[in-house]
Amino acid sequence: MNDKAYYVDTVYGDKGEIVFGEKRxxxxxxxxxxxxxxxxxxxxxxVRQPKxxxxxxxxxxVPKSVLLQGGWWFECSGINEDGRRxxxxxxxxxxxxxxNEGVYCRGxxxxxxxxxxxxx
Length: 120
Ligand SMILES: [Zn+2]
What we know:
Elements: E1 4-10, E2 17-21, H1 24-29, H2 32-35, E3 44-48, H3 54-58, H4 64-69, E4 74-75, E5 89-90, E6 97-99, E7 102-104, H5 109-119
Antiparallel strand pairs: 1-2, 1-3, 4-5, 6-7
The chain binds zinc ion.
């Protein structure tokens, strides 16, 4: 296993993620932008991220908590006070709740999300 971490995104900056691969081309080939969005190869950029290499060995992807510390943001996966998906952008400064790799606003969204799961 010589996988390295790459930050892969489209030239439009709308599909950022960390992808592991031996080479830059592997990372692009395994990216969401290439596989799910069907973007052409030339629309995708991959930049080395050595600080995340250690997670390739664990094979679990980079934990959200680590990415948050690295300056990333995630949309809240919880339910807001109106009963809708919250989708608020959360950064490390918001000190969000992270459960099963879902990111939630501190205060309410996670609890409402779990209540809804329980009803199903
Ligand atoms: Zn929320």
